[in-house]
């Protein structure tokens, strides 16, 4: 009898750490949520909740506008 693979439950890192807001001036914290091409990763891959995914999106967009993060990586 084979055992079925049960994936581990993803959790929101921001909720777990009780982060009051996502700082757009910290590119090291935002990098794990971007692909190698510079696109944002979706919620189903990162495990962030809807509220923090919206905050994350605005933080990445702000960081891109002031050149802390690239729009596209080649």
Overview of the molecule:
This protein is mainly α. Helices cover about 40% and strands about 0% of the residues. The model has no long low-confidence stretch (mean pLDDT about 90). It has four helices and no strands. The chain has helices at about 15, 25-30, 45, 50-65. The chain has a domain at about 20-65: Irregular (30s Ribosomal Protein S18).
- How many E-type strands? 0
Low-pLDDT sequence parts: none
Q: What is the chain-wise order of helices and strands?
A: HHHH
Question: Into which percentage range does the β-strand content fall?
Answer: under 5%
Class by SSE composition? mainly alpha
Tell me the Rg in angstroms.
15 Å
Average pLDDT reading: 92
Percent range for helical residues?
25-40%
Features:
single chain, 74 residues, mainly alpha, 30s Ribosomal Protein S18, globular
């Amino acid at each position: 009898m084979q055992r079925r693979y049960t994936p581990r439950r993803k959790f929101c890192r921001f909720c777990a750490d009780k982060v009051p807001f996502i700082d757009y001036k910290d590119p090291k914290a935002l990098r794990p949520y971007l692909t190698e091409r510079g696109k944002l990763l979706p919620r189903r891959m990162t495990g962030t909740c809807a509220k923090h995914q919206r905050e994350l999106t605005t933080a990445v967009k702000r960081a891109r506008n002031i050149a802390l993060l690239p729009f596209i990586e080649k």
